[in-house]
Amino acid sequence: MAAPSVFRLLHRVLPRLGTQRARLSGGWVPPAQAPDANSFVARTNTCGELRAAHVGQEVTLCGWIQYQRQGLFLVLRDFQGLTQLVIPQDEWSQVQTDRSAVRHVASEFLRYIGIPLQAHSHVRKLLSNAPVESVVRVTGIVSSRPPGQENAKMPTGDIEVKVETAEVLNFCKKLPFEIKDFIKKSEALRMQYRYLDLRSSQLQHNLRLRSHVVMRMREYLCNHHGFVDVETPTLFKRTPGGAKEFLVPSREVGKFYSLPQSPQQFKQLLMIGGLDRYFQVARCYRDEGSRPDRQPEFTQIDIEMSFVDQAGIQRLIEGLLQYSWPEERGPITTPFPSMTYEEALAAYGTDKPDTRFGMKIVDISDALRRWDVRFVQNVLSYPHGTAKAICIPQGVRYLKNKDVESLKEAAKSQFNQEIVDVICRPDGSLKSLLTKFLGEEQQSELKQVLNMQVDDVVLLAAGDHKRVCSALGSLRLESADLLEAAGVVLRDPTALHFLWVVDFPLFLPKEENPTELESAHHPFTAPHPLDTDLLYSDPAKVRSQHYDLVLNGNEIGGGSIRIHDAEQQRFVLEKVLKEDSEVLSHLLEALEFGAPPHGGIALGLDRLISLIVGSPSIRDVIAFPKSFKGRDLMGNAPEYVTPEELEPYHIHVSWPVAETEAKKN
Amino acid sequence: MAAPSVFRLLHRVLPRLGTQRARLSGGWVPPAQAPDANSFVARTNTCGELRAAHVGQEVTLCGWIQYQRQGLFLVLRDFQGLTQLVIPQDEWSQVQTDRSAVRHVASEFLRYIGIPLQAHSHVRKLLSNAPVESVVRVTGIVSSRPPGQENAKMPTGDIEVKVETAEVLNFCKKLPFEIKDFIKKSEALRMQYRYLDLRSSQLQHNLRLRSHVVMRMREYLCNHHGFVDVETPTLFKRTPGGAKEFLVPSREVGKFYSLPQSPQQFKQLLMIGGLDRYFQVARCYRDEGSRPDRQPEFTQIDIEMSFVDQAGIQRLIEGLLQYSWPEERGPITTPFPSMTYEEALAAYGTDKPDTRFGMKIVDISDALRRWDVRFVQNVLSYPHGTAKAICIPQGVRYLKNKDVESLKEAAKSQFNQEIVDVICRPDGSLKSLLTKFLGEEQQSELKQVLNMQVDDVVLLAAGDHKRVCSALGSLRLESADLLEAAGVVLRDPTALHFLWVVDFPLFLPKEENPTELESAHHPFTAPHPLDTDLLYSDPAKVRSQHYDLVLNGNEIGGGSIRIHDAEQQRFVLEKVLKEDSEVLSHLLEALEFGAPPHGGIALGLDRLISLIVGSPSIRDVIAFPKSFKGRDLMGNAPEYVTPEELEPYHIHVSWPVAETEAKKN
């Protein structure tokens, strides 16, 4: 065992030099660009960075005890990795004589400056008795592992550290679950002890990657393209239609702030204020009650530019993602393909198509129009009447009868859409409720239009265009899940299919009253330049300058060119949407004072990062997420407060009991 | 006048190339590191970047009309500067023959691809009639200004742009105030039309500098020192003593979220979660009602590290500020000096001393102890009895009698502290109420202790140490203001006096009941290592590991090493502070599961930036600040909401009238 030389010991007690801290000589030096994770602290190295080149160096490590083996070995963990420590077995007196002289000088020196040198027996006792997950600091000598004992799976697997001194900085009591990646624990337990779950390599990786990606985005926006990071208020007032905004009582009786769903108004006002290029990693709030995989607070990369058009924003975002995309998931190619909303709806039945696989919706109206089947003709005669189908390749082999039945039921219950299934028998003939209406020629035409092969299953729907497409789009995704569950490789998990969806309708009929219109996205979206005249004559037909960014079937961003003309904005609010424009009077007035043409976008950061790390839930990329009921299970929020605490805000709680009693009186 | 060549016109209609956009050749190229502010948009240059080297180039600029002179010139403004435009005076037909041939080809080409070339008369009409602050896009040729007409004060003063085509993108109606830096406008008007005030060069500069400084901080923390940017929740629950926290009603009856004053608990939990190095540019909330220059939401640079001590955090912050400090205000030297709380109180009467000037508090107890004056002896005999003074150099010359009187009154009303003034007459004798008690020798001793010169004014106080120091510290600052108002240069406005104040008391007597203790800062602060034993015997005497960072007399940051031992934390909460520790049970439990030693700091970003830009108010470094009453004067927040909007949150407003009626019944 190597004993620390006086020189090394002197080195250890030298004052720390911050960023200029002298690197231990002769060893592995991190790349010039890599951050120094050991500056300003009491360690020399992290638990992930020691290599064969460090052998012979004295190092100080801090970390958590991952496990301990029979008082001989201990594995120490920190955020960067694991290092094997060798617990000293020899006693103080057992070291060789020539070295003990050195040790004597060293120990005298250390005692003089107040650092006692420890006996090995003491170190052994400390390290052998400390429970798993206790926090320790050790100093020792990096040594090669004995031949044959190297661990190629471990980045530090060539070395071990022979411990000279040790200190238990904090003990750990019995854990509710082990900090090992392979240990399964319930979501509720993970949330309650979130600080323990954060020690897992998965969450460490997710949060660090998130930080890194955001930092790269900032570099791209600020340092490369002159964007200004501006913080906008989160205490504002309710926006029209802001039914999902949290309220914050103020000290003025009856008046409330509101936590905005996005900085939309502020970023437009910044453009009017001449900021030219704005971005913010913006905290946003949305009170939707209980919804799976939604969070009451979430983060978006919020961007706005003046003097820009739709293509400008799209190229910006492509560059942004390319620049910030982590190497482990890259590279990505740009420009991203583009598809109109109508195309997406027709081919995929959704405005966020997953283009990683085929099974597109096929229009079979023309084929069916030639059939002499009354109810088909009937459906096709309606204004938006259509007949469409998807073909599930080899569906007979991979889908059970009950799968097909449940698909049909789902279409019925979710979309009120009847589905007819058609199967291609081994002899090429079709099996379906429909076949009795079809001649051989018609069956052949159907097979050809759908490119149907033996054992394929076709799901066919006729009716209103949007409903048929939506139902088949949903069945397409459910069928894909079923095929994959049955072992078919349909979607490459490493594939990255980015897609711009453009030319959305500007307005949609209100669900509760289809004769009235509401904004498809928000009332500030500009109409498509080719449709401006339609705005005043037939607003329902106007396409917008809204664009969505879709990745593998997930909407990861959306934005638009905004209305910059006050009169047009007023017309949209008052005449088309029939909204009270008073609540937006500040924005309408601002548009009259020289508002530049402008547009922007917001990327959903939580979703984007979860797609990058391949996590099914955004909760895995948020440090302290809320449960799907909006609760913090660790700190127990929200919580009751006393009536005295409510007093300054002039509110009180309407308890159900109180209500009942009030009714009685 | 130069006519655009076909080549240039072709160039103009080429598709934009994003970041790879071809720079106009032969001209000024921004430094490789400078951001490209013209990527993705329709302009070729900003209004601040054209120089003599650009002469002959065709450029497209977008901006606001700053002013227009007699239909001849127009000054265009954007975020980067001003450019003079020459409005074309010649008609279409007036251009020279050789050029008109070129123009004909060009115009035919442009008409072919759909871009009409404008007649100069049309351009002149457009630009002459557009009101100030209208938004225009112009294309033209950069030309040298005629000799003698260069403007050396204007960065673009060597050139002007001869406009060829122009488009008014938006008109501006009559403004509530002019966008000129020299125009004075009321704070309320500026706040109501914040988007217009944002166009001022001062606010543009402040917000851009803020963005730049924060970006540099991020580079230092993330890229240089391995910090992880982690977002923590803002919807949490009330913390003990969190009387200033905004409440957010939840959909669960009677339960409220709370908007935290800082991410304190979360950052400690992140350390327990092994994150090791955390930072966040964190939005924080504090409901203090009406207080000048406080904002209900504000931003702090929030930092926490594991395995660090006080010196480690201090060196980190010094490096951070040095790295991010804007060149225009730099350089700053490190390390910053340090002073204990007791030293600061004794010499400056405050925990945030302005060390840019002297006039320090001098202890004259020893001198006075030798005086045979009963009331002085009486005061000095109390446990914390003291006599102290400050000396205002040349006070007789610069302070009026009423100034001295108002200083004395302020000490009386704010600190209940009597002040005696002493003046040094031209003959060296002292004039004071006290002199009748003093012999010549005693007067001489007083002059010597205070280094008193002819015409100096001394303010003298005797009584309780802390009260005397606080009163004199306050008078010191007020006297400095008076001296400066009288023309004395006391504090160099460019000086940067950073100072660490350390060794604060851990606890303070509660104001309402001085026999009980409360945390001087917060209950998670660790005791000073030398005072740990005192914690259990005489907690009032314990110093803490809290540190404040002071700049020119302003607290710009504060932090501490935290308690990482669960038992110690429990003792502080339950035995010393007598708090219900149940509400912090998650944190106490977390400390038991292997919490590493850790500490951190938070810098007040708004105040820091306002000091950097030399602005008296933090409102000048916030894009959309609230008024001192917490109101958004532009959007009119907070605002009334309907009872229906309150229903999901099970609350209703206690209107004063309703209260009155309730009392009647």
UniProtKB/TrEMBL annotation, chains A, B:
- Keyword annotations for this protein? Aminoacyl-tRNA synthetase, ATP-binding, Ligase, Nucleotide-binding, Protein biosynthesis
Q: Which Pfam families is this protein grouped with?
A: GAD, tRNA-synt_2
User: Which Gene Ontology biological process is one annotated for this entry?
Assistant: aspartyl-tRNA aminoacylation
Q: Which InterPro entries match?
A: Aa-tRNA-synt_II, aa-tRNA-synth_II, aa-tRNA-synth_II/BPL/LPL, Asp-tRNA-ligase_1, Asp-tRNA-ligase_1_N, Asp/Asn-tRNA-synth_IIb, AspRS_core, GAD-like_sf
The positions making up the signal sequence are none
Q: Which CDD domains match?
A: AspRS_core, EcAspRS_like_N
The answer to keyword Glycosyltransferase applying to this record is: no
Q: What is any one of the record's Gene Ontology cellular component terms?
A: mitochondrion
**Start and end residues of each Aminoacyl-transfer RNA synthetases class-II family profile domain:** 207-625
Q: Which GO terms describe its molecular function?
A: aspartate-tRNA ligase activity; ATP binding
Q: Which family does it belong to?
A: Belongs to the class-II aminoacyl-tRNA synthetase family. Type 1 subfamily.
Protein name according to UniProt: Aminoacyl-transfer RNA synthetases class-II family profile domain-containing protein
Annotated organism of origin: Callipepla squamata
